Glutamate decarboxylase (Leucobacter iarius), 456 residues
Amino acid sequence: MSRDRITVNPLHRRASDAPTVEKHRLSETGMDPLTAYHVVHDETMLDGNARLNLATFVTTWMDDEAKQLYADAFDKNMIDKDEYPQTAAIEQYCQRILADLWHAPDAAASPATSTIGSSEACMLAGLALKRRWQHAREAAGADTAKPNLVMSSAVQVCWEKFCNYFEVEPRFVPVSDEHPWLDGSQLDQYVDERTIGVVAILGVTYTGAYEDVAGIQAALDEIERARGLDVPIHVDGASGAMIAPFLQPELVWDFRLPRVASINTSGHKYGLVYPGLGWVVWRDAAALPESMVFRVSYLGGDMPTLALNFSRPGAQVLLQFYLFLRLGREGYTRIQAESSEVAVHLSAGIAAMPQFDLVSDGSTIPVFAWRLRPGWSGNWNLFDLSDRLRMRGWLVPAYPMPADLEEVTVQRIVVRNGLSMDLAESLLDVIREEVAYLEALDAPLPRPTRSGGFAH
C-alpha cells in the first residue's frame, strides 16, 4: 500500500466510496460525509490521551455546557463587531474583569483585546513598548534606531520571534544556578537608553517559577535615579496571571506596580478555555499608542481593531465569559488550588526518590521540574525515563534548560484541571516502576534516546 493513500475501513465505507483515498492530492470525487468523518477520526487515534498529556499547558477538557456553547458560536467572527455586537460586548466584559483582577487603576479605561493566544498578545504588547519608545525619542529629537528588549534567557520562544519579526535587539539576561530567573540583580548591565522595556515572566515555561516583578521594578527605579532612564515592564503572565490572583493574592506583581505597562495571559491555559484564546491588557490609554489602533469601515460599520490577525473565532471569548460566570472568584480559586495541591503532592513524591533533585516544587503555578541527581547513573537519563513513560501512555517531557544552563536536563510535569489525586498516585506508581526498570540495567541503553516531547 502506498504511503500516499489512506485505507478506508470497509465497515464505514459506502458502496460508492473508493477503498483508499489520497493524502496529498485533492480527489476527483468526494465521499459520503459519514465515511469522511470516520477517515479523519481514525487518523487521529494515535494522538494519545489528552488527559495523560502532562507536557502541555493548554486546556484539553471543558464541560458539556461549554461544548454546547462552543457549537452554538462556531460561526461567530470576533473581528466582525458590527455583525456580532453582543459578542463584542462580551469581549469587553472579559477585558474589564481581567483589568480589575490585575488591579488596573481604572479597569473601565484600560485598553485591552482578545487574541488568538499569548503569542499574539505578546507581539502586541512588545509593539506598544516599541512605539512608546519611538514616540518619546522622536519628541526628544533623538534617533529611533536599534531598540532593544531585555528579558531572561528562559523566555518563551514567542519573544524571540517578536524581536526577529519586528527588528528589536533581544538582550537575554542569562539564568544560572545562583539566578535561575530574572530578579533584577543584573539589569544595570543590559538596560540603556535604547531599551524599550523589560519582560518579566509570571510562570517560567521551563520550571513554573515566578520571576520577581517587584524586584525588577526596584532595580529599574534605581537605574532611573542613577541614569535617568524610565523603562516600563511587560508581565508575560501566560500561565501565572490566571493563578496568582487566586492562589497568591498577596503577591504584588501586576498593575499595583507603577512600571507595569501591560500584562498578557492565555485564556486557553489556566483561564481553562479550549485553544486558542489570549488576552492583553494595558494599564491605561497612555500605555497603548493610538497609532496601533485601526479604525476600519467593515460591513457598514466603523470598527476599531487592535490585532495582528483579522478574522478569528469569537466562540472562545464566549467560553471565557461563561467560565467567569460559572466559576466566579471562589470557583477559580478552588480549581487552581486543587491543581496546586496535586502538583505539590507529585513533586513531593518525586523528591522522595533518591535518584532526583527538584528544580521547582509546584508552589507557584501547578508546574514543577526535576533533574537526575549528579553522578547517579551512567546507564540511563531523563530522556530514557520520558520514553518509558510515553510507552505507558504518559507524556512527561525531558529537555535541556535554556542557554547558560543547557548542560542541565530536567523533566517537567504540568498539572491541569482533570489530573486528579488518584491519577497522580497512578503516575507516581508508574514512575517508580519505570525507574526501577532503568535502575536494573547492567549496561547503558544501546543509544541515547531523545524525544520530541517538550511542548510550551
